[in-house]
């Protein structure tokens, strides 16, 4: 049984981490921090956890965190990297759900997150935590940068096309039309997130540029081994009036080779042994509600006309897009069954 700490336990991803880890057969959460809720019982704030935990929030105490085998940071960008060096010195592993260890390009990190990196040498040795595509490196890593939610849908949606057969598509043609529920913005007071601003409404945001774009580009370059060909892909996120759920519709131009290929079989074979990626039968339409609360990503393919491919990719942004994927990474790091604590089935209706 490993000892776990969660820094930032009052946000949506923090409490989702706790929900998943409370059912984990090999992990016990011993430290749950909150600067503002020190001393408060977690089930007082989140009554769904009544009867499942007696944990209380505590202020961040680095000495207590150093007693843990692994610490999750469910915090704003810039927090994890301030504490990672000290935790590593105590042989405590780190999984960051923010962006501190996602981008290897420091110039892009500073541009999009408005801060200098506090530990660039540690960043070089960290692993990008998309389990299905980076499993071997994750197993041996001490620091994990959990992927962003949108980039997860995009990478898993495109990986079969670039990992094994990069000549099937025209990379510069890719358009990513992505939608997320409001929980993706976090649990904070904000005028743009209140009910009357979002109910009966649907809007694009970050159209001029979004911080997940450079993450998508860097990740696709690593998947494909091609540099400089993804710089002009288009990525536009949208906010939809639901709590959980994310759907990315990806439009791609095919080459002659790609047009002749059996892409359905390519995807099915690529993900044949992946517990958490479901390639649906041809003609299917994956729904966000089918993965609500589950660490599952579902994919469907369409060829509406010659040399055109549409990839549909859905997930729960708080689970496979955040907390569930973080637990999946923890399982790999400690040699547990990859699905430990993650066997939940999606809630429908």
From TrEMBL:
This protein's pathway: Amino-acid biosynthesis; L-arginine biosynthesis; N(2)-acetyl-L-ornithine from L-glutamate: step 3/4
Q: Which reaction does it catalyse?
A: N-acetyl-L-glutamate 5-semialdehyde + phosphate + NADP(+) = N-acetyl-L-glutamyl 5-phosphate + NADPH + H(+)
- According to its UniProt record, the EC number is 1.2.1.38
Main localization, broad class: cytoplasm
Q: Where in the cell is it found?
A: Cytoplasm
Kindly identify the residues recorded as the active site. 149
Domain (Semialdehyde dehydrogenase NAD-binding): give its ranges. 3-141
Q: Supply the InterPro entries for this chain.
A: AGPR, AGPR_AS, AGPR_dimerisation_dom, AGPR_type-1, NAD(P)-bd_dom_sf, Semialdehyde_DH_NAD-bd
Keywords of the record, alphabetical order, are: Amino-acid biosynthesis, Arginine biosynthesis, Cytoplasm, NADP, Oxidoreductase
A biological process (GO) of this protein is: L-arginine biosynthetic process
Query: Pfam families from the entry?
Result: Semialdhyde_dh, Semialdhyde_dhC_1
Q: Could you name the Gene Ontology cellular component terms for this entry?
A: cytoplasm
| Job of this protein | Catalyzes the NADPH-dependent reduction of N-acetyl-5-glutamyl phosphate to yield N-acetyl-L-glutamate 5-semialdehyde.
The family classification in the record reads: Belongs to the NAGSA dehydrogenase family. Type 1 subfamily.
Name of the molecule in the record: N-acetyl-gamma-glutamyl-phosphate reductase
* Organism per entry: Acinetobacter wuhouensis
């Amino acid at each position: 049984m490993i000892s776990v700490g969660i820094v930032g336990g009052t946000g949506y991803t923090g409490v989702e981490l706790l929900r998943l880890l409370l059912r984990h057969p090999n992990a016990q959460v011993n430290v749950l921090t909150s600067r503002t809720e020190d001393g408060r019982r977690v089930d007082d704030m989140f009554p769904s956890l009544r009867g499942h935990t007696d944990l209380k929030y505590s202020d961040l105490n680095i000495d207590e965190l150093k007693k843990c085998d692994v610490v999750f940071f469910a915090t704003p960008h810039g927090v994890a990297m301030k504490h990672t060096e000290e935790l590593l010195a105590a042989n405590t592993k780190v999984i960051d759900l923010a962006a501190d260890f996602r981008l290897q390009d420091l110039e892009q990190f500073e541009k999009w997150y408005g801060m200098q990196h506090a530990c660039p040498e540690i960043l070089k040795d960290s692993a990008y935590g998309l389990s299905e595509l980076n499993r071997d490196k994750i197993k041996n890593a001490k620091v994990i940068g959990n992927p962003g939610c949108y980039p997860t849908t995009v990478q898993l949606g495109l990986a079969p096309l670039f990992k094994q057969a990069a000549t099937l598509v025209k990379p510069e043609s890719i358009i990513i039309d992505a939608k997320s529920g409001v929980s993706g913005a976090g649990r904070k007071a904000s005028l743009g997130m209140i009910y009357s601003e979002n109910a009966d409404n649907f809007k694009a945001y970050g159209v001029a540029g979004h911080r997940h774009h450079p993450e998508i580009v860097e990740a696709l370059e690593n998947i494909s081994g091609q540099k400089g060909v993804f710089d002009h892909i288009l990525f536009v996120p949208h906010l939809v009036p639901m709590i959980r759920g994310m759907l990315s519709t990806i439009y791609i131009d095919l080459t002659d080779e790609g047009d002749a290929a059996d892409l359905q079989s390519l995807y099915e074979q690529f993900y044949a042994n992946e517990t958490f990626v479901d390639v649906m039968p041809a003609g299917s339409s994956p729904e966000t509600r089918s993965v609500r609360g589950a660490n599952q990503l579902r994919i469907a393919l369409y060829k509406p006309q010659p040399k055109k491919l549409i990839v549909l990719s859905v997930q729960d942004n708080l689970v496979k897009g955040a907390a569930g994927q973080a637990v999946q990474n923890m399982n790999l790091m400690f040699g547990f069954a990859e699905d430990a604590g993650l066997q939940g089935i999606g809630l429908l209706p």
